[in-house]
Amino acid sequence: GAGVSQSPSNKVTEKGKDVELRCDPISGHTALYWYRQRLGQGLEFLIYFQGNSAPDKSGLPSDRFSAERTGESVSTLTIQRTQQEDSAVYLCASSLMVAGADTQYFGPGTRLTVL
Amino acid sequence: AQSVTQLDSHVSVSEGTPVLLRCNYSSSYSPSLFWYVQHPNKGLQLLLKYTSAATLVKGINGFEAEFKKSETSFHLTKPSAHMSDAAEYFCVVSASGGYQKVTFGTGTKLQVIP
Known about the structure:
The structure holds two protein chains of two kinds.
Chain A: E1 5-7, E2 10-13, E3 19-24, E4 31-37, E5 43-50, E6 65-69, E7 75-79, E8 88-95, E9 105-106, E10 110-114
Parallel strand pairs in A: 2-10
Antiparallel strand pairs in A: 1-3, 3-7, 4-5, 4-8, 6-7, 8-9, 8-10
Chain B: E1 2-6, E2 10-14, E3 19-21, E4 23-27, E5 31-38, E6 44-50, E7 56-58, E8 64-68, E9 73-78, E10 87-95, E11 103-104, E12 108-113
Parallel strand pairs in B: 2-12
Antiparallel strand pairs in B: 1-4, 3-9, 5-6, 5-10, 7-8, 8-9, 10-11, 10-12
């Protein structure tokens, strides 16, 4: 079946503008994660969704960042008033359920460049 | 609390020689451990995972890793490197004693020299 998809694949924006990134998880996957990967660095956890439970937002770096997920489907990550330090690849992953052993399946990422 | 440390940011090996990528972890609970690979301009792919079954885990492309609780290590190995193994490798820990989000290491870039 289809894997995790993300759109757009690339986004160039001007400092101060808002951006919205989209993630379509694998159908049936109840858990969804957003990560940020800055150039040459590892993955930084941002936010996690599990079904209808309250999301774990502990990784969001500032109140300019927010994310929503409708049920167990699409998620959007919104960055308001973008800054140059927001430039990174934003990765989405989904897994079948929340448990330590679950494999996360990653999307190809959205490369965000803030000018 | 949990953390993962990848001891080498870069590893360079000759084609046909063994690969060793080191990973140490800490976790308050019995952990699940993963290795992911990221090829240039491609998405992350699971190589293998340890989930409290056999301590020696075999993954794709000839990679394997051994969970050593006494050493809190989960090093990734391969007997003979191929050029196609050149990529970045991430060690990941996730506690299984209750929900904990996964924690990624900072990654190790593997260079394979012809």
